[in-house]
Design goal:
Blueprint (H helix, E strand, L loop, with lengths): L11 H12 L2 E2 L11 H12 L15 H15 L9 E4 L1 H11 L7 E6 L5 H7 L3 E6 L1 E2 L12 E2 L2 H7 L4 E7 L11 H13 L3 E5 L25 E6 H4 L8 E4 L2 H14 L5 H16 L7 H22 L3 E3 L6 E5 L17 H13 L1 E2 L18 E5 L4 H14 L1
Parallel strand pairs: 1-13, 3-4, 3-7, 7-8, 8-9
Antiparallel strand pairs: 2-10, 5-6, 9-10, 11-12, 12-14
Bound molecules: 4'-deoxy-4'-aminopyridoxal-5'-phosphate (PMP) and glutamine (GLN).
Family: Belongs to the class-I pyridoxal-phosphate-dependent aminotransferase family.
InterPro entries: Aminotransferase_I/II_large (IPR004839), Kynurenine-oxoglutarate_AT (IPR051326), PyrdxlP-dep_Trfase (IPR015424), PyrdxlP-dep_Trfase_major (IPR015421), PyrdxlP-dep_Trfase_small (IPR015422)
Keywords: Acetylation, Aminotransferase, Lyase, Pyridoxal phosphate, Transferase
Length: about 425
């Protein structure tokens, strides 16, 4: 095995999806909705697929289907406050995964350092290593508990520690807001601190914003590309899977200045070349519809967070009721909870995994019938100990299934 692949042999997704198939627990593991996506989105795909235009089933423009890049340009020009060129400043990809891969591989050279904020979506680390880069990690740390319920806002970067990671070898920082798995939504002040360091050290920012529309009031999603001097050095990534609750469509995109985007286009043209045409056409139709009702309560970009808020609050309550300590997320559809108060009721010796959260989640899947994800998967090896007493649950699920999860936990306790 080439050295740069070492350590990435195992994937929490491969392992836990297999486990779910085998034991059939109530699945609050991998993040996807278990109820229908908006009807008009599904109708768009079915009309595109069965319509008169049979050419929609053939290859489309490699860097992005024209109708989709036009819609993305319209939307993000408005949000970023500058004209985004659909030909040169946008790339559509096979999921946000490919956008991340192209952005990282297209820029990181041997020995370049890449700053990753923990907990992080797990593919960042292997992608940086595949490109020959050196990941440098910095964990968000829980500051002294504020009043009321602990929230993802209590998890912050230490400014001195962050500064100490930047040096002349730093090529990029990967930001994820709203964050998976914590749900943290970075504030303007936090983003300004990051952007000041990026400008000082001439560093690129890859901003993974796949949960951009899932932010709970009064929190606000701020695109780091809108901060002064940041457009020039930021590549922002989105996902149709998260935007329209169709994770199986595996359509993503990246946008940023043309001189950076050429590097992503290069990777894309040689590894993938072109994406799925009908899925891009249907997504364009969905964006066109949302653009027409942008900002209104009916707009899905507004209603999705409203739809998820009671689910978030319900989960917070039932986890507390059984004695766990949930961290209320400001965005996204995952919740981190501390399960250690229940440790005496779990048989952690029945599994052989090195980290306790793996043993806890496997034991729960097999014996209690409820699946969550072990958060040490979102930490570098030296920092995994920070997450061993935690579990991640997904709450973009039918109320009925969240109620079942609550029942399963109550029955066990
Ligand atoms: N980034 C984050 C933070 C995610 O949670 C996901 C979820 N899969 C992705 C990227 C990848 O998205 P996609 O399914 O569009 O490839
Ligand atoms: N983003 C989703 C999650 O975090 C899906 C992960 C994946 O498909 N690898 O659960």
């Amino acid at each position: 095995l080439p050295k740069r692949y070492e350590g990435s042999e195992k994937s929490v997704w491969v392992e836990y999806i297999q486990l779910a198939l085998e034991y059939k627990p109530l699945n609050l593991g991998q993040g996807f909705p278990d109820y229908p996506a908006p009807k008009y989105v599904i109708d768009a795909l079915s009309e595109v697929a069965s319509g008169e235009n049979y050419m929609i089933h053939q290859y489309t423009r490699g860097f992005g289907h024209p109708r989709l890049v036009a819609a993305l340009s319209k939307l993000y020009s408005k949000l970023i406050g500058r004209e985004i060129n659909p030909q040169t400043e946008i790339l559509t990809t096979l999921g946000a995964y490919e956008a991340l891969f192209s952005a990282i591989t297209g820029h990181v050279d041997d020995g370049d350092e890449v700053i990753i904020i923990e907990p992080f979506f797990d593919c960042y680390e292997p992608m940086v290593k595949y490109a020959g880069g050196v990941p440098r990690f910095i964990p968000l740390r829980m500051k002294n508990a504020s009043e009321g319920l602990p929230s993802s806002a209590d998890w912050v970067l230490d400014q001195k520690e962050l500064e100490s990671l930047f040096n002349s070898k730093t090529k990029m920082i990967i930001l994820n807001t709203p964050n998976n798995p914590l749900g943290k939504v970075f504030t303007e002040k936090e983003l300004t601190q990051i952007s000041d360091l990026c400008k000082k050290w001439n560093v690129l920012c890859i901003s993974d914003e796949v949960y951009e529309w899932i932010v709970y009031k009064p929190n606000k999603h701020i695109r780091i590309a809108t901060l002064p001097g940041m457009w020039e050095r930021t590549i922002t990534i989105g996902s149709a899977g998260k935007t329209f609750s169709v994770t199986g469509w595996k359509l993503g995109w990246a946008y940023g200045p043309a001189n950076l985007m050429v590097n992503l286009q290069m990777i894309h043209q040689n590894c993938v070349y072109t994406g799925c045409t009908p899925v891009q056409e249907a997504t364009a139709i969905a964006f066109e519809k949302e653009l027409k009702r942008f900002g209104s309560d009916e707009c899905y970009f507004v209603s999705i967070a409203q739809e998820l808020l009671p689910k978030r609050d319900y989960m917070t309550q039932f986890l507390r009721d059984v004695g766990m300590k949930p961290i209320v997320p400001e965005g996204g559809y995952f919740m981190i909870a501390d399960w250690s108060p229940l440790e005496s009721e779990v048989d952690l010796t029945s599994e052989t995994d090195r980290y306790k959260d793996y043993r806890f989640t496997k034991w729960m899947t097999k014996n209690i019938g409820l699946q969550g994800i072990p958060p040490t998967a979102f930490y570098s090896t030296p920092n995994k100990h920070l997450a061993e007493s935690l579990v991640r649950y997904c709450f973009i699920k039918k109320d009925e299934n969240l109620e079942k999860a609550a029942e399963i936990l109550q029955k066990w306790k």
